[in-house]
Amino acid sequence: MAHRMTIYMLVLGLLLIFSILSCNTQSSSTGPIKWQQPVKIAEGSGYRGPWRMNDSEFHYVDDPTVDLLSDGEIGIGWVEQAQRNIVFQRIKTNGERRFESPVNVSKTPNVFSWLPDMHMDRGIAGNPDSLHVYMLWQEIVFSGGTHGGEAFFARSTDGGRSFGEPVNLSNSIAGDGKGRLTQKFWHNGSLDLLVAPDGTLYAAWTEYEGRLWVSRSTDRGRSFSDPLLVGGDNEQPARGPSLAVDTAGTVYLAWTYGEHPQANLLMARSRDQGRSFSSPETLVTNPGHSDAPKIAIDAENQLHLTYSVSPGGPFKIYEVRYQKFSLPSLSTTQTNTFTTPGYNTYEMGHFPSVILSNAGNVFLNWELYKNAGARPEALAFSYSPDGGKTFISPYVLPGSGDPDMGTNGSQQGYLLDKLAVNEQGDIAVVNSTFQRGRKSRIWLFRGKLQPE
User: Fold this and answer.
1) DSSP secondary-structure letter at 404?
2) Angle 232-349-416 (CA atoms, 0-180°, nearest 5)?
3) Which regions of 218-301 does DSSP assign to beta strands (E)?
4) Residue 433 in contact with residue 441, Cβ under 8 Å?
5) Domain region containing 157
6) Model-level pTM?
7) In this structure, how many other beta carbons lie within 10 angstroms of the beta carbon of residue 420?
């Protein structure tokens, strides 16, 4: 009897230990940030048929974008390729979905909609309880040129429960939304959307033919100005635009260009609310190809830039860099080059994002590749607690990089934002994964910056 009791107590002890370990796997702490287990937001098949323009059979989910409210509620937009539509969902702080089904944003089931950029706004110029949701994306409209693509915008004035009719901001035949590297290779989703503190919206996009355009709205997305040409041409095609605004209201627009193995990063400024922009000036010069810039500006008018550079030129090994500049002089105050985390697994980092918190924290994430010819398979993450002076060692975002999930998605390009933070220290990262012939998924990673 005593022997049986001993065995019984041993089994109970093992079960208790297993239970504790199981509970501990529900979240993981990496440095000052505690991450929850990733949550699957959407799922589709992994079928991608041959390209037949808008008659193609694409049956997968892809291209997530994210934003965070101050209370921790999350907005996510993504593409349902089988429906050829952009959709939107809000995730409550308890993880529940606010809407029974994702809300259709683009409403064009016969035309592919790709790579959205999304922001939520509580109503700076109106009712503070009125949540607006803004979405900018690339619509694969064939308007008569050699390449299909237009820059489309839609907004919701009821918190994302419904969206108004989409508006074509570009109206051209030049293949808008494409960021060209060569005549035969480009990334789609070459666009950016900014909501300034005064409520002005700025939309920027590039075209296959090479030009960079900006349009603005001073009435919270009811109407937009005619597109304004800022830079780029067929010889130096602009790609990867990124927008930011300083405390004085000056708008900054950074980009790179293709068709050159030593492409620099360029920038233009507007001091009149986007009515005009200065001539392009060189922001960064590197011996190699500088690509995919992202900028943000803090309350002290410091410009934070992250980008990728390949000393060997396009299609070679890229590494991620961060630089900080004082405005308006553009004098460099900080430069960091990041090692690739998981060095025995991942060889390359590319397509970073940067976002700032009101507390002066700087957050970065980027795509991780096993080699230059592969698709990315994980996300890297790093964080600065002191305004970009120092960063924690980059690490693989917990829950990304699972070989059973396949590769990261973004079948049409990687020029998108996957990162959001709020003033409470909440962090949201989104990603898509793709297993050809099997499954595709949209994932949400939630983190919390822990108090020191």
Assistant:
1) G
2) 50
3) 228-231, 238-245, 251-257, 265-270, 281-284, 289-297
4) yes
5) 28-449
6) 0.92
7) 24
Q: Which tokens sit at 163?
A: 């969206």
Asked whether residue 3 is assigned to any structural domain, the reply reads: no
Q: Confirm whether 208 is domain-assigned.
A: yes
Opening angle at CA 305, ends 178 and 359, nearest 5: 125
Half-sphere exposure of 245 (CA within 13 A, CB side): 21
Q: pLDDT tens, 162-213?
A: 999 999 999 999 999 999 999 999 999 999 999 999 999 999 999 999 999 9
Exposure letters 215-243 (e unless 16+ CB within 10 A, then b): bbbbebbeebbebbebbbeeebbbbbbbb
CA nearest neighbour of 221 among 141, 152, 324, 288: 152
Pairing state between β 407-408 and 426-435: antiparallel
Q: How many domains does the chain have?
A: 1
Neighbours of 77 (CB within 10 A): 27
Is residue 22 in a domain?
A: no
Q: Are 66 and 74 in contact (CB under 8 A)?
A: yes
Contacts of 276 (CB under 8 A, 6+ apart): 228, 270
Let me know if residue 20 belongs to a domain: no
Residue 137 corresponds to which tokens in the numbers above? 């994306």
**Which helix (H) or strand (E) segment is 12 a member of?**
helix 2-24
**CATH assignment of the domain containing 65:** 2.120.10.10
